[in-house]
Automatic annotation (TrEMBL), chain A:
Name this polypeptide is given: Uncharacterized protein
Bilayer-spanning residue ranges: 37-55, 75-96, 124-145, 165-193
Keywords: Membrane, Transmembrane, Transmembrane helix
Domain of life: Bacteria
Automatic annotation (TrEMBL), chain B:
Top-level taxonomy: Bacteria, Pseudomonadati, Bacteroidota, Flavobacteriia, Flavobacteriales
An example molecular function term from Gene Ontology annotations: DNA binding
Transcription regulation as UniProt keyword: yes
Domain RNA polymerase sigma factor 70 region 4 type: 108-158
Protein name: RNA polymerase subunit sigma-70
GO biological process: DNA-templated transcription initiation
Family designation: Belongs to the sigma-70 factor family. ECF subfamily.
SUPFAM superfamilies: Sigma2 domain of RNA polymerase sigma factors (SSF88946), Sigma3 and sigma4 domains of RNA polymerase sigma factors (SSF88659)
Keyword Protease: no
Pfam families registered for this protein in UniProt: Sigma70_r2, Sigma70_r4_2
Amino acid sequence: MDELDILKKDWNKGNDKYPKLSYNEIYKMILKKSSSIVKWIFIISILEFAFWLAISFSFKGTSYSGKLEALDINHILIPFSIISYGVLLYFFYLFYKNYKNISATDSSKTLMENIIKTRKTVKYYVIFNLVSLVIGAVIGALYGFNHNPEFSNKLDLATANGEVFKFYAVIIIVIILVLAVVIGVLLLFYWLIYGILLKRLNRNYKELKKLDA
Amino acid sequence: MNKELEHSFVELLEKHQNIVHKVCRLYTNNYDAHNDLFQEITIQLWKAYPKFRGDAKFSTWMYRVGLNTAITLYRKSKRSIKTQDFEGVEFKIKAEDYDDTEEQQLKVLYKAVHQLNDIEKALVFLYLEDKDYREISETLGISEVNARVKMNRIKTKLRTILNP
């Protein structure tokens, strides 16, 4: 008889050694709120969508947005906004669809895969936003170089002083630094939140995949 | 959710609650953690109950939801982590602990099972519940052959833990 068979004998005979919860105690439990990782993923994901939406709204009405309007680039901004909201809706639909597919009655592997899939949808949305941020910054800078009179004046001044190269270098370095800091902070935030939340799931999923490899 | 559904669910769970207690016993090691996990499994079972069609046995359905909650969905609460988290603790069982008396032997065996990882515990749980390899493989989502191979490895691992 191996070790597990010894355990099995004890396992099945000792049903009276567990607490016996009453009907009312169980009833009270079903009224409580879940604290599962799926609930947290849902809350955080909704906050992420709200965060990017809030960023796009809060941008409107700022002095920077006023400057952009003065540049008369609506022909760029309007399609850009339509694409952004379209993409947001698409990702949100995918996210909700995947979220709805998560079921505790699936096999463990399928359940884990569905959670990872839901999580990935939001991750791709965030990547899309970060890439848009970089592209937007580059387009904005290029457009500014060519169309902003304020910029032309400063450039003329720098040319007169023989500092054209320095002038461009400073602008480009500042843009890169700001983008790096913003992206760095966001990535750190994600790494911390999801690293902690999904650590166990990832470890167990790896283990299950290893079994079927 | 209507009252009738609530009533039938609570009644069924009250009757089969030992299954949930057994899952909690394998995945936790103190009273608070046991209660936390029991609570979460109950909520998950309740959430899934409207889709329970009765074509499977209620107990079989409970195994799946219970294990899935323990392995994947459950987020350990702070109070559980303080005293219950085994993952970072590697405790070797001393040879002198392995006594001949049955009770002592069982204590050592349970201690050894607690050192297994989450997936291994799930396999052990289903094995102890006398489930066949088909059901084990379906519950975890792995092939039957691999479930069998893994089970043999777990037995070897347990032997190594018990006889270092």
